[in-house]
Amino acid sequence: MKLRAYARGAACLASLCVAGGAAGHHAPAPDLSSTELKATLPYWEKKPTADDFVKEYPAGAKLHKISGSATISCKSDPAGKLHHCVVVSEAPAGYGFGAATLRMAKYFKLHPAWRDGKPIAGQITVPLNWQIK
What we know:
The protein is α+β, with helices and mostly antiparallel strands. The chain is 15% helix and 36% strand. The chain is built from three helices and nine strands; from the N terminus they run βββααββαββββ. The longest helix is centred in the last third of the chain and has 8 residues, at 97-104. The protein is elongated.
């Protein structure tokens, strides 16, 4: 049984784009020595691996070979950890894709947005597509 997972959407702006785990690239750290720098966007320092997706795949969906998707909305602290996540959507309902996506939050770490030389808290939306073949 082969599992694949993808993350797309608004979080791609922050260089998310998880394809089968940790594909993609990290943006370079901002140069904070510049006096003209006022703000920077967040980017992912850590993303889930393919093994993380396999481990968290909803058991019922895996058993019945069901693919699905879910989107969570999370707060991020200045250290880049995601917390207070809630499920915004999931499909199909009843297979646990929302709960699985909530569990995936622990595998993500942001290099947070910076404003005036200091990391700031924020809000981020993380959409994940879960596929099984």
